[in-house]
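Predict structure. Chain length: 154.
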Amino acid sequence: TIIQHLQDEGFGVMGLTTQGLHLSSRTLYQLNDLAVDFTKTSLSDEYFVFKYKNPVLYRDGILFGNGSHKGKVLFSFLEALSHNPSTVVFVDDKASNLIALEASCNEHGIPFVGLRYGYLDEKVKNFNAEVALEQLRVFGGHIISDEEAKESLR
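Prediction complete.
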């Protein structure tokens, strides 16, 4: 709802992720399922693939940084488009990404507002990769609970 409202008000909104290129289709599918569409205010209708340290993809309003520094990748992309935003407002679940993007904005003299999204902090804290892998291993059309996976691991 917030993204749609900002787009309706004429603000440029895009996605920026460190996810790899191989996850772009799945990411777009998931966002579509949530009615999030970054193409409405996309800086370009073109797909871009360029090399920063790793290959980077811009697709459907989302910059897939493929593990690269979010700030440096974003400004490489903006420079390629000759686009100079008046302000960058950035929402991320990691404080380190906010700090990195703020530093890049400061280098370019662009005002920055960073918002840390912490809604899923508790779930991330409680994530158990071993349990998730066990759930995936036994998945056969039926997702087992964390408790069932832990019991299976015993």
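Summary: The chain has a mean pLDDT of 89.
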